[in-house]
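Continuing the batch. This is chain 6 of the set; chains 1 through 5 are on the previous pages. Same settings as before, nothing changed between runs. Recording input and output for traceability.
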Amino acid sequence: MRSGLMFIGVLIFCISCSDKNKIPEGIMKPQKMHAVLIDILIADAMNGERVIKDTTLKLPVENASFFLKVFQLHQTTRNEFNRSYSFYLKRPDLLKVITDSASAIINRRNTQLTVIPDTIKKKPNGYNLKKITGKSRGQY
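Output for chain 6:
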């Protein structure tokens, strides 16, 4: 009886001390999942823009093509990504870190692309077309 209680105590201790953040074999590590997810989100956004401009394109077909390229780039497969994504969906604590970081990076890149530097907004040295050409409007 005493050895049975000790066994249960040791078992509970081992379970409680196990690494809860350990990623199982065959599941992408958070850093890789983060990188793949960013590229997939960017590919999806690019395809969304392309489909709007060219109505002959179909978003699911275009996404499938681009996603395969993303998987090749990251040396992974669609199945590994799907398994990993399913795992992280069951672990919202880990998924939140990955998605929040991916969102921050994408927002930062978007901001960098849309902000026009002050040097572009201003006319160089205060000159305008009239001063540079020496001609007024309509006298070309």
